Amino acid sequence: MLQFMRNIGATLTSRILLGFLALAFVIWGIGEYVRPSNALAAVTVNGEDVGVRWLEESYKQRLGMVEQALGQKPSDAELAQLQLAERIVAEAIGRTVLRQTAANLGLVAAVKQLQEMIAANELFRGENGTFDATRYKGMLARIGKTPEQFETEMGRELSVQMLGQTVKVAPVADAVAAPLAATANAKVTLEVATVAPRAAASAGQPTAEELQRYYTLNEQVYRTAEKRDLAVVELSRAAVSGTLSISDAQIAEAYAANKAAYALPEKRVVRHILLPNMDKARAAAAEITDQASFVAVANRLSTDPGNVQGGQKQGGLLGSIARSDVVKAFGDSAFGLEVGKLSAPVQTPFGVHLIWVDRIEPARERTLADAREEIKAQLLAQETEDVLARLLEQVDAKLAAGEELPKIAAEAGLKVERVAQVVADDPRLPPALLDMAFATGEGQVGAPVGLNDGGASYVLVEKIVVADLPKLENIQDQVIVDWQAASVQMAAQRDADKVLASVRAATPRSMAQAVAQAQVADVQLGTLRFSNLQEVPEWLQPRLLDIYPLPEGAALPLAVRAPDGWKVIKLAKRELVAPDAKGLAAAAGVYRTQLQADMEGLVVAQLERESAIECHQPRLRQIFGRDVQCE
After folding, report:
1. Could you give the CA distance from residue 375 to residue 75 in angstroms, rounded to a whole number?
2. Is 254 a domain residue?
């Protein structure tokens, strides 16, 4: 399979990966790419945890989008239909498989590409809108990362983009696109019979036996879950750093003691030509006599994708770099050259390089004002680490001595968050904290739950309301209302099924004739026409794939539930619409995109089949509230 991946063409899932990276940056501190979860794994791929935090945050984000779209919290049935959990887990598995494959293939992201991606991120821009190195280092310090650690990890993730040179589908021919586009843009006319539920009161009153049976079948609806009132104290880096301040005197003292460490290193404006082997590098070197010839050869022969920016070739220009910005072999050569001289061929993991130095920018000292924010961030990070460790010890000791958690938090200047009526799968709290809350007795503080930044959360169970199933006699009025609503819905569905059976009878008949034959009263007949997805009612959209293949005069095999009742649907007419040249070109592009996605999906699926994927359902249930099919 790895050889197959090396040989098959060009363009895989860079856009998918960058979507993951964007989500990770939005979450901050940069998600599972920077801070591996300390919690029990939910899914592992070849022994690697896909990241509980990523799963939790993705689910919360997408569930929020669904709730916003629906205007209410989706039901369990709607969530099952959307398969949010399955989609999120599949993306996490695919992300991990792709990253592992890139590593196995030895694919390494270009230094310049990584630098440009980091520089382009708004999180690291200063007041003037450009990349601010001091802000960059300071923000990383807040999550306990050095630039070297962060860039190594991000470089590993970006290497997945190099798998984008493995799969590419050909354009879709007009002969294929035309009939597909004509079908997709067909003008469809449907005959629709709507059977609306009658008023709930028309169901009458249930017998005692009917009411008991309905109550028994729907006990889960009426059972109240165990609920707990909690007090939560989070002792995190962010909580601690918010209580600290760094004085100007501390900054000045640190600058004076480490002045050399804050100096700006020598930098060089460097060009390079990337070639696949030594023979080609030596041949190219023979053509170079000055900067102009170097630029010409670079634009003609360099295989570095970064040599093209905005459609313009760059003459091999890497820009101003420090020795630490590049791999050792490249740095040793570039920083040992005289200005205007060509290097010998240099072998690195990327290939073979020819290097040219345009200009040298000597090392120089930075003033205290220039280094102030960087020093402040470093001092704050170190003091936060010290105070966090000390506070954790103090809190644990005071709890062991019997002191109350709210009092301890107040003395430490920490916020106590009270969360009432918490259930076992409550989305307001992370699964690990919920586990501890429901394993702790009333009036007790659970063991500390570790945070990804090295801190801990403490939970005090202030009150427990045990799970309960109310007796039928105590909620009888509500159960009767529910029984009536269910009864009229079932009656409407039965009437719709009668109409459908008549429509599908051996003797063809119109919808009106079928309704009359079925002897169903109060059925509304109508016509529905559409030629694109925007015109299709939301309740019908899930059934479109069943409608398009129907022959004229045929009906859907099942009635469709809609907000106003049950719908019996018959395809009356289908008119194919041939696209014009512009529409045909657009359709061909759409189908090519679909084929591209299908091909990428096949590659990922094959990689997943070759991987050892383990799903830990207890952990998945904590995150998603149910078992998730993910293997």
Report:
1. 52
2. no
